[in-house]
Amino acid sequence: MRYRLFGRTGLRVSELLLGTMTLRDEQQARRILDVYAEAGGNVLDTASAYGESEAVLGAVIERRDRFVIGTKYTLSRDAADPNAAGNHRKNLVLSLEQSLRRLRTDHVDIFWVHLWDRHTPVEETMRALDDVVRAGKVLYVGASDAPAWFVARANTLAEWRDWTPFAGLQVPYNLLRRDVERELLPMAEALGMSVAAWAPLAAGVLSGGSTRVGELTPRDQAAAAAVRKVAEELGATPAQVALAWTRAKSPAVLPLVGVSRPEQLADNLGALDLVLPAEAVTVLESAAGFERGFPADFIAECEPSRFAFGDAATKVVGR
């Protein structure tokens, strides 16, 4: 296992993150954490909305200091209470305290905004996050499932006002779902943020473990077949190929895998040593067509254009 820096911080995080949403049984959870820790993994991801699994994680961690524990807040803790959800200060504080009790710790390493809340001003969220960082209950913060403009504005405010900025971004990302390549991934790269890619196996579609086979679209089936073909040629498993593709798209991307058995995790870990040849990447991406759309494709067409940038259009060397 190798390590990456978490955003523009000095925190070392393993190149494969472990999602713990499905943990329910303490004995099985211990086995999964043992396999992960033995491989060098150190990031455990959970959320206040995961309820029982957050408590299970807190019960089985023996070396708290060896792990980077991340949890999230936003989603409702009580459907009958209008203030038990959202990104405002009240829900942030109460959700964090609940998570600390469940996790049996006095701080979390990463505290994620779980979902963009259009009703809460970004200034309130960022100031409240900075307050819990200064209080020592949170070390770093991140944003999950939010528009690129919101994250960029939040980090600009943090820079201006000396608040703690988002160091990480959580988004769904896999061969079948590449929407983040339009705005979110370029933004994260430009701002130096780490990207935790959830659902890297597309809910089992790309690994052959989907329970909704009858619901797969022709595009889903073509992509899954391409993954199997490449896996056979490389002597790997479909899950390893799908994860290797996600990792190869950007050095900022850190796949976030969720497993229910140690054997699944061991298989996923095999992706860390798999390098996809360029021909394999072409086969995979050809099976699941994707267009970035406007403005990305339009700008890419304009960049080498003499009409747009004059005689030097093809002579400028830059990023």
UniProtKB/TrEMBL annotation:
Pfam families cross-referenced by the UniProt entry? Aldo_ket_red
Q: Which Gene Ontology MF annotations are present?
A: oxidoreductase activity
* Native source species: Actinophytocola algeriensis
Tell me the lineage of the source organism: Bacteria, Bacillati, Actinomycetota, Actinomycetes, Pseudonocardiales
User: Does the keyword Oxidoreductase feature in the UniProt annotation?
Assistant: yes
InterPro entries, A to Z: AKR, AKR_Detox_Biosynth, NAD(P)_OxRdtase_dom_sf, NADP_OxRdtase_dom
Q: Which domain of life is it from?
A: Bacteria
What is the protein's name according to its record? Aryl-alcohol dehydrogenase-like predicted oxidoreductase
What are the NADP-dependent oxidoreductase domain coordinates in residue numbering?
16-286
- Keyword entries, A-Z: Oxidoreductase
Q: Which GO terms describe its cellular component?
A: cytosol
Q: Which SUPFAM superfamilies match?
A: NAD(P)-linked oxidoreductase
